[in-house]
Write a structure and sequence with these properties.
heterodimer, A: 214 residues, DNA polymerase, domain 1, 7 helices, B: 293 residues, alpha+beta, Uridine Diphospho-n-acetylenolpyruvylglucosamine Reductase, domain 3, Enolase-like, domain 1, 2 domains, 5-stranded antiparallel β-sheet, 4-stranded antiparallel β-sheet, 14 strands
């Protein structure tokens, strides 16, 4: 059937199966693959888009239900090549790990901020309750939304200012590693297997392997 | 292939219903039905998309009766000032349905027609004594109590050419208090394992419960009123002893509705906490706790 959908301000004329989900039409026909399919039953929120200002699961909505409405997807957040403030804060707060839930998280958060520019933390948690993340936990995400909403927010954990700082703590210098092995041996009586080289601390299974026993 | 029809007026809806077959499905919010459509053999011949029926999306107070359109969403019900004033338990139930996304799409009419045994809306409508109004393919309007529409899990008395158009029930006044509590496997986005809706008319002068209505859901075939318990509580003072009787009555009602069921040990225990939650929401006495708390 013929469908006219307004997505991110652009009108698309589409020939779609009558029972096609909004998710499928957005991804396969409009070509906007930022919206993700997770559970396909309205539980995980990866497919969240905004329809007429309200966050909905596009996996349990047919495309025909969105006719004549304003659809906003994650691709519609950035303007003129500049990330939306919410997206910038997700980056800044380390609120993205594998990234699969992120488009849905962003759209739920965006819908919240569109209706309530200064939400409480409780408001944020309720708005995001239908979005599951299996990597980061939710603290960094909530902190990012809070920061984007004009609240003063502190990061969920202290993040290194520069990646270089983190790298500096992980030494690859052979002499330092050898010294560390000596300390381990002196304190525990266990000799870390293999040469103390940048390649690592030897075979961790050596002690328990049949040939390497007592 | 499925044909989709999108009526935008009641007359157009009747015209579509007149063509309906047993394989025709009605689409409200879609949060339950879209999953069914994707199952093998789930494709209907005709799908009547109700989303264009603006007249079914309103809440209106007519004298002492509150009318709620079948297509009002849970988000709407959660915040609607008339619902909060005259049917708080329905607003509280709506607020606990699924996630924000589900509440934005899911409708009260869909909740009833889908007839999930754990439908929170049905428990609230049951305690409110709601009548369900439907229209069919012949254009006939019928009104019957919620208990005669929802018969059991996924079982209703709705004909294939019959659409729920709205609900009506006596508006609660300032002398009423109402509450809704539910328990599931987690605190949010949770499917009810047990739900409880409570309405009392409080006699402030005497400090007693002039009338009491209790409904339990997600236990047994369909949400039901605990009539015996209601009678036992009537006229009692709003005190801790009454709270204890209420909790005990809820446990008895649960035991009676699912004798021997594997979930009984859990649900009868849960009923105590749930009853105290609902009681405390009424704010008629100092907060009460079960003895084991």
């Amino acid at each position: 059937m013929q469908l006219v959908l307004t997505v991110n301000g652009m009108v698309h004329e589409i020939e779609a199966r009558p029972t096609a989900r909004l998710l499928d039409v957005l991804r396969d026909q409009v070509g906007l693959t930022g919206t993700k399919e997770g559970c396909a039953e309205g539980e995980c929120g990866a497919c969240t888009v905004i329809v007429d200002g309200q966050a909905v699961n596009s996996c349990v909505m047919l495309a025909v239900q969105a006719r004549g409405k304003e659809i906003l997807t994650v691709e519609g957040l950035a303007q003129d090549g500049e990330l939306d403030l919410l997206q910038q804060k997700f980056v800044e707060y380390g609120a993205v790990q594998c990234g699969y839930c992120t488009p849905g998280m962003l759209m739920s958060a965006k819908a919240l901020l569109m209706g309530n520019p200064v939400p409480s933390e409780q408001d944020i948690r309720i708005a995001l309750a239908g979005n599951l993340c299996r990597c980061t936990g939710y603290s960094a995400i909530v902190a990012a939304v809070k920061a984007a909403s004009g609240h003063e927010a502190t990061p969920a954990m202290e993040l290194p200012a520069e990646p270089a700082e983190l790298a500096a703590e992980v030494t690859t210098d052979p002499d330092t590693l050898a010294a560390a092995c000596e300390v381990v041996e002196a304190e525990t009586g266990v000799t870390p297997g293999g040469p103390c080289a940048p390649s690592g601390l030897g075979d961790p299974f050596a002690a328990s392997s049949p040939e390497g026993g007592e | 292939m499925t044909e989709v029809r999108s009526p935008s007026t009641r007359n157009e809806l009747v015209a579509e219903l007149a063509q309906a077959t047993p394989r025709t499905r009605l689409l409200a919010g879609g949060t339950d039905l879209v999953r069914v459509l994707r199952q093998p053999g789930g494709e209907p011949d005709v799908l009547i998309d109700l989303s264009g029926l603006e007249e079914l999306k309103a809440v209106r107070l007519d004298g002492e009766t509150l009318h709620v359109g079948a297509l009002t969403t849970f988000s709407q019900l959660q915040w609607d000032p008339l619902v909060r004033e005259h049917a708080l338990c329905l607003s509280l139930a709506a607020a606990q349905v699924g996630s924000t996304q589900i509440r934005n799409a899911g409708t009260l009419g869909g909740n009833v027609a889908n007839a999930s045994p754990c439908a929170d809306g049905v428990t609230a409508l049951t305690v409110l004594g709601a009548d369900v109004t439907t229209v069919d393919g012949a254009g006939a309007t019928r009104t019957r109590p919620i208990g005669e529409v929802v018969l059991g899990p996924s079982r209703t008395s709705l004909a294939y050419d019959e659409a729920v158009v709205g609900f009506a029930f006596p508006a609660l006044g300032p002398e009423h208090r109402s509450a809704f509590s539910k328990i599931g496997s987690r605190t949010a986005v949770s499917v009810a394992r047990l739900s409880c809706a409570l309405v009392v008319r409080f006699d402030a002068a005497a400090g007693t419960l002039a009338s009491v209505r209790v409904a339990l859901g997600a236990v047994g075939e369909a949400a039901f009123r605990a009539a015996e318990l209601e009678r036992a509580l009537e006229g009692r003072p709003a005190d801790e002893e009454t709270a204890r009787l209420f909790a005990g009555g809820c446990v008895a009602a649960v035991q009676e509705s699912i004798p021997g069921r594997y979930s009984l040990p859990y649900k009868q225990h849960a009923a105590v906490g749930l009853a105290y939650d609902a009681w405390n929401m009424l704010a008629l006495s100092a907060p009460c706790e079960p003895a084991w708390a």
